[in-house]
Design a protein that fits this description.
It is a single chain. The chain has helices spanning 2-38, 40-45; strands at residues 51-56, 65-75, 78-91, 94-98, 110-111, 121-123, 128-130, 148-154, 157-164. It has 167 residues and is an alpha+beta fold. It folds into 2 domains: 2-38; 45-164, Rieske Iron-sulfur Protein (3-layer Sandwich), CATH 2.102.10.10. The longest helix has 37 residues, at 2-38. The protein is elongated and about 80 Å long. It starts with a helix and ends with a strand. The structure holds FE2/S2 (inorganic) cluster (FES). The site of FE2/S2 (inorganic) cluster has 11 residues, from loops. FE2/S2 (inorganic) cluster (FES) binds next to loops.
Length: 167
């Protein structure tokens, strides 16, 4: 009698445990969906709010200027700060903000540092080169253009948003 009770209680224990684990996993999968349904803004931001880079429209010229700034990355309830950089300048009358990360293997590109190509972005790691608008130059290692930031002007100040891949 006591042996039988014992066996049943073990089975019950297993049932409860498996139900609990299954429920926990289901909750883990459903929670992000519910969160996005309740707050679409969370998804839209994707952790890439527009951030002031401390430059005004009047500070801009056709000469690329490097700016360094911090962005807050929101992942669920966790917020962290990441540093970012951009080359910001006027190109054909538009504000262009390029990522300085080389699209070959991720080194940092600089503008005008190769004496032979003073009007190009240059990556010293493997001599990658990009046109002023970020287009990769055929015959150099990078196979796609530099990424570009979304740009907004608010009250005359430059704000940068998410980084977009091109090409
Ligand atoms: S990382 Fe820039 S050329 Fe290779």
């Amino acid at each position: 009698m006591s042996e039988k009770n014992h066996r049943v209680s073990r089975r019950q224990f297993l049932t409860y445990t498996l139900t609990g684990v299954g429920g926990f996993m289901a909750a883990g999968m459903l929670a992000p969906m519910v969160r996005m349904a309740l707050d679409p803004a969370l998804e839209a931001s994707g952790g890439a709010e527009f951030v002031s880079v401390g430059l005004s429209e009047d500070d801009l010229s056709e000469e690329p200027q490097r700016v360094d700034f911090n962005v807050e990355i929101v992942d669920g309830w966790y917020t962290s700060e990441q540093s970012r950089s951009a080359w910001v300048f006027l190109y054909e009358g538009e504000i262009l903000a390029l990522s300085p990360t080389c699209t070959h293997l991720g080194c940092t590109v600089n503008f005008g540092t190769n004496e032979e190509y003073p009007d190009q972005f240059f990556c010293p790691c493997h001599f990658g080169r990009f046109e002023r608008d970020g287009t990769n130059i055929p015959g150099t290692p990078p196979t796609r253009p530099l990424d570009v930031y979304d740009v907004e002007v608010r009250d005359g100040m430059i704000y940068l948003g998410q980084i977009n891949q091109r090409g």
